[in-house]
Each structure stands twice: as C-alpha cells, then as structure tokens.
Write a structure and sequence with these properties.
Layout: H1 12-19, H2 23-35, H3 44-50, H4 56-59, H5 62-68, E1 72-80, E2 86-92
Antiparallel strand pairs: 1-2
Helix pairs in contact: 2-5
Length: 94
C-alpha cells in the first residue's frame, strides 16, 4: 500500500522513497510514543521531541491511520505548540 504515501504528481524519487518506508512500523512507533504520555495526552511537538530525529513530516501522517483504526483519539483540547499555534491533544484509546 505504499502508493498512498505519495501523490501522482510527485517526482520518481518520491515514489522510490515511499516504497522504502514501512508505514506499519512507523504507525507502531508513533502509537507507542503517544501511549507513553498516558491519559494526559500529547501534542505533535511532544511526539516529535520523543521521536527525534524522525522528521515531523514522517510522524504526523501516521495520526490519520491511528485515528481511523480507533487506536488514538483527539481529546477536543488544544495546547500551545512551540510555534505559538495550537495543536490538538491526542491520547491512546484504552
């Protein structure tokens, strides 16, 4: 299913990069990072800090799949990110 990791308009190098990514493993890594924050949840900045040096654009696409699978939820809360903007709080579903 790596074809969902790139757009039809992307260059050939993006297609090759997408083929080299194990999205399932990345989902698991992101899930475990979010789980580590417990019921208080976390924002993307927190997850990125824990998973450093993985880049933001590798981590954040995993949220949609985890939400769709019912493994995490958005709490409805937001917290201020280092950028000064609000980010939604996510936590694992028990």
């Amino acid at each position: 299913m790596f074809w969902k990791l790139f757009r039809r308009t992307d260059p050939h190098t993006s297609v090759l990069a997408a083929a080299s990514i194990d999205a399932s493993e990345l989902e698991n890594v992101v899930y475990e990072a979010i789980k580590g924050f417990g019921n208080g949840g976390c924002i993307s900045d927190d997850v990125c800090r824990v998973l450093n040096p993985l880049p933001y654009n590798t981590i954040t696409p995993r949220y949609r799949k985890l939400l769709d699978k019912g493994l995490i939820e958005a709490t409805g809360e937001t917290r201020k990110a280092k950028s000064g903007r609000s980010q939604r709080v996510m936590r694992c579903v028990d």
